[in-house]
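Reader question, answered in our methods column.
A reader sent in the components of a multi-part assembly and asked whether the whole thing could be modeled at once rather than chain by chain. We filled in our standard form and ran it. Here is what they sent:
COMPLEX SIZE: two components
ENTRIES:
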Amino acid sequence: MSSPNCMVTNEWVCGEYLRTRRPELVDAVVQHIGITAASVVIGVLIAFPLALLARHRRAFAGPVLGLTTVLYTIPSLAMFSLLLPLFGLSASLVITGLVLYTLTILVRNFLAGLQAVPDEAREAARGMGYGPVRLLWEVELPLALPAMLAGVRIATVSTVALTTVGAIVDYGGLGTLIMDGLDSDFKAQVLTASVLCVLLAVGADLLLLGLQRRLTPWTRVASGTSRIRRRTDRSGSPDRPDGGSGDTERRKEKAAQAA
Amino acid sequence: MSAISGAYDWLTTEANWQGDKGVWHRLAEHLYFSGVTLAVSCLIALPLALWLGHIGKGGGLAVNISNAGRAVPTLAVLVLLTLTPLGRHGDLPTFIALVLFAVPPLLTNAYIGMREVDRAVVEAARGMGMSGGQVFRRVELPLAYPMVMTGVRLAAVQVIATATLAAMAGKGGLGRIITAGFNLQDTPQVVAGAVLVALLALLVEGVLAGAGRVLNPMKGRSGVAR
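And here is the structure of the entire assembly that came back:
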């Protein structure tokens, strides 16, 4: 048991802090999750049409990918500050900035997923009389889903981390606690909020991984038989830090189909 | 859009560029942080990644490090380091945090670049009687070069961005113009600082992309479309 004095002696780990400041911590976590979830959901809603557009009109692909990459280069503090005149000090400022960051990852992965759908599958569906909407909904989307969800996972994890910077406008979820802790030299608060933030990222990642397994049960069946091949594949797969791990997913899919 | 014209006014006011809190001094701090960090990170990450890539081991490590790096909030690390005893040593927390975030992209890209070199080419080089060192210098390194440079570029941009956050932990750099603007509730200054930081990041990205292309050892050789 930690002594009740750990708040006074300013220890890094402090049970008393956890007990007495629970409502504050819960509020921060709720705000953090809210901002992250809103950003990723809005990001998905914007990225999907953009990816479709980029796929159908080749002329769009370059500018769309180029623009979203440029957005990613802008440091987060600058991004939030640039949006200040438009939104004032508000949660929508933070969410808008984060949405812009998710677009880079999401558009790239969505596009990679859609482009990886084998032409034979598309041809077969067309031959069976599928219209463009039904083709997209029933054939292309399920086949592209693993790569698309991989993009959502990367976007979510980095958004959880970036939300902390929202503390500059007081809407940073756990980041706000971290900054307050810095100002008042409150070690327990800084460490607790930081650990919670990492736990949130890991938790969100696992949750989405579970969702991905549920939504694409067919990849799981195949993955059991082709695990060895996948492992050898992965050793050389380019998981680019710019978030384009679509290649990995595409290879996995190929391996799954071959099995 | 009074904030934008205000930001323009701020940027064109000579007094804002001079002195200890002026743009030139903050820019110098920013470049000093970023430059030293990038050099140290390259010295740590590149030899390790190139060596691991050459012997073909440690692939899981290289990929996992970059995945884990995404989950760690930069700001939290900076603040944590500032509150530790290290925080008493001036800029040391900033340097450590920056190196921490620059190493993963360098490591991952350099390693992947080495592993993506066509095995047949390496075999052929060995068959011609090249030693391990020769294969490394004359075959693997030139072919891996574009990926290695991509890593350097990513790391540089990441360092520039993270150096901005150092201001939130009370350190120098261009971010300080933004945080000072927030404290003074001076929106034009906030926007002006943000424009400067964004421009610097884009400029560094552009210059490094250009330099990477010009310095490519495979430049002008036929049949190499990597």
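What stands out: Residues 59 and 111 of chain B are 8 Å apart (CA to CA). Chain B has one domain: 2-215.
Send us your own complexes using the same form.
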